[in-house]
Amino acid sequence: MSNKPIRKAVFPVAGLGTRFLPATKSVPKELLPVVDRPLIQYAVDEAREAGIEQMIFVTGRGKGAIEDYFDIAFECEITQRERGKDLSALEGTRLAPGNAVFLRQQEPLGLGHAIWCARDIVGDEPFAIILPDEFMKGAPGNGCMKQMVEAYEKVGGNLVCALEIPMDQTPSYGVIDPGARDGALTEVKGLVEKPKLGTAPSNLILPGRYILQPDVMKILETQEKGAGGEIQLTDAMAALIGKQPFHGVTFDGRRFDCGSKAGYVEANLALALEREDIGAHIRDFARAELAN
Questions:
Q1: Has residue 26 been placed in a domain?
Q2: Which candidate among 51, 77, 117, 222 keeps its CA 20 to 30 Å from the CA of 93?
Q3: 181: three-class secondary structure by DSSP
Q4: What is the DSSP code string of 92-145?
Q5: Considering the entire predicted model, what is its pTM?
Q6: How far, rounded to the nearest angstrom, does the alpha carbon of residue 64 sit from its chain's CA centroid?
Q7: Which of 175, 173, 193 has its CA nearest to residue 248?
Q8: Backbone torsions φ then ψ of 81, nearest 5 degrees
Q9: CATH of the domain at 104
Q10: What pLDDT is recorded for position 225?
């Protein structure tokens, strides 16, 4: 099994974002902003903070704007420079040549299939997976993927982010069957994708952050459809349990489900309240609204 460092991250961004129609009719859901930065930017920043160098975006038809976002904004940059405007807001939006790879998932066959589409780019290295609509907010300099990479450097193998939720919400997620616990690390004995209500082995779910060995690609290659008629990543990961080390890492931070409207609004409010430029105004506005 590989002990190589985590240099690559896969971002599955081919989804249609139908829960946010009509906004996502022409704008990819990953480009919806939380205050003034799109979700995909937060995800890429999280990967960079963890030392990841190459970003692999698995896109679909109609998602070309994501590729444009990480390119040079020539007209914008020239105009801003000519007017003596500050360009610092654009920092991090341009990825270095060769550090951004874009490929397509031609059919919506599930998360497992999206990851498998990146097999030739991943090669024989362990790699990270980040789902951008799961917005994971850690302390400055200690994001979710950084916490996971630090855990990987200790135990190796495969890791998933673990998050505790109420048991009645478990049917919507992949759920961990837990073994021994050691601080933030939990041994993973099994994984269940979207269990029926009352059947989940724990309330520890998988909120969209993974570090996996490349062996998972061989499993995905021949895997049959699972829950929802899709090729589930959870099923492929479950096949690695018992063959390779597998742990959950409890995230020290906050999670916002920006795939839902409520979670998206919560993320905007939480980050706006922290901002020096608008925080006080938003706080006063919220208090006034609650008083009405």
A1: yes
A2: 117
A3: strand
A4: TSSPPTTSEEEEE-SS---HHHHHHTTHHHHTTS-EEEE-TTEEEEEBTTB-HH
A5: 0.91
A6: 19
A7: 175
A8: -65, -45
A9: 3.90.550.10
A10: 67
Which residues on neighbouring strands pair with residue 138, listed in sequence order? 253
Identify whether 21 is part of a domain.
yes
Tokens matching residue 36: 């003034």
Q: How many domains does the chain have?
A: 1
* Residue 289 belongs to a domain: no
Which tokens hold the place of 33?
């902003």
Range of the domain at 223: 8-259
pLDDT at 276 over 90: yes
Burial class (CB in 10 A: 0-12, 13-18, 19+), 19: middle
Would residue 291 count as lying in a domain? no
Report the Cα 238 to chain-centroid distance in Å: 19
| Nearest alpha-carbon partner for 209 in 70, 11, 34 | 11
Phi, psi of 143 (to 5 degrees): -70, 175
| Backbone torsions φ then ψ of 6, nearest 5 degrees | -85, 105
Cα 110 off chain centre by: 15
Residues near 40 by beta carbon (within 8 Å), at least 6 away in sequence: 11, 13, 30, 31, 66, 69, 132
Q: How far apart are the first and last CA of the chain?
A: 60
User: Mapped to the 3 state alphabet, what secondary structure does 28-81 carry?
Assistant: CHHHCEECCEEHHHHHHHHHHHCCCCEEEEEECCCCHHHHHHCCCCHHHHHHHH
Q: Which residue(s) pair with 58 in the sheet? A: 12, 103
Q: What is the dihedral of CA 93, 211, 108, 223, to 10 degrees?
A: 160
Do residues 14 and 105 make contact, with C-beta atoms less than 8 angstroms apart? yes
Name the phi and psi angles at 78, rounded to 5. Answer: -60, -45
Task: Give per-residue pLDDT as tens, 41-100.
Answer: 999 999 999 999 999 999 998 899 999 999 887 788 778 888 878 777 777 788 888 889
Q: Are 130 and 46 in contact (CB under 8 A)?
A: yes
